[in-house]
Specification:
Layout (H helix, E strand, L loop, with lengths): L6 E4 L19 E5 L2 H9 L4 E5 L18 E6 L4 H11 L6 E4 L5 H9 L1 E6 L9 H8 L3 E3 L22 H12 L3 H16 L3 H13 L1 H7 L1
Parallel strand pairs: 1-2, 2-3, 4-5, 4-6, 6-7
């Protein structure tokens, strides 16, 4: 029934891959809500039919007013998705006097967030292609200096002003992490402040308001689709 609005929520660029099951539905009329501009561009390039709207994910952890002074870890390596690379990074970055921990297994979310909050720096190792890499944004909110490679879906909120945003290869990651760990305090404070500002723009209230706007205008959006 073409009079019944259909909302298609899309969280990953893989939905646009001609090999994916999801891509088979892109030729069907729908209002497509995408979690990032990169996801929206991918599905539009794949020939999606209908209306495409971008509503970025929000972060549901409190944005800390300032970086916590008591942080037991110099570096946390979040390597669940890239365990071998995490081990290689640890070997390259471990030096006398440094406290570094690798997380390469599933842990409860509260424990994961607590680990981030206990670290001065966090090296995130996502999949090479993500729709919206939320852990990096959580790291910004929790006051850690974030090091995370370009994984497509984090381009909308990461840049060299609020984080270390290297290319996705091990030498670049090691160099960026070394820079983060040896950064002058004044430069670090500025970067952390910008990161908090970024996280503050991704609060649940803003996300809810954006979805509410879609629902209030659903009939009109469907006519435009």
């Amino acid at each position: 029934d073409d009079d019944l609005p259909i909302i298609n929520f899309i969280q990953h660029t893989r939905h646009a891959g001609d090999w994916s099951i999801q891509s088979r539905y892109l030729t069907r009329k729908a209002i497509r809500i995408c979690v990032s501009d990169e996801v929206a561009q991918a599905v539009e390039n794949a020939g999606s039919r209908g209306k495409t709207i971008v509503i970025p994910n929000s972060v549901d952890v409190p944005v800390l007013a300032g970086a916590c002074q008591e942080r037991s870890l110099d570096l946390l390596i979040a390597g669940l998705k890239q365990p071998e690379m995490a081990v290689q990074a640890l070997a390259a970055l471990m030096k006398p006097g440094r406290t570094i921990e690798v997380l390469d297994d599933h842990v409860p979310r509260a424990q994961f967030l607590a680990k981030i909050a206990s670290a001065r720096n966090v090296l995130f190792l996502p999949n090479t292609e993500e729709g919206f890499y939320l852990p990096a944004l959580e790291g910004m909110a929790l006051g850690a200096l974030v090091i995370c490679p370009d994984c497509i879906g984090n381009r909308g909120f990461m840049n060299s002003r609020n984080s270390m945003f290297p290319a996705y290869d091990l030498p670049a990651l090691i160099a960026a992490t070394e820079t983060a760990m040896t950064m002058p305090d004044s430069t670090r404070a500025t970067m952390l402040a910008r990161a908090r500002e970024t996280a503050a723009r991704h609060q649940p209230a803003a996300e809810r308001a954006a979805y509410g706007e879609v629902l209030r205008n659903l009939d009109q959006l469907w006519r435009e689709a």
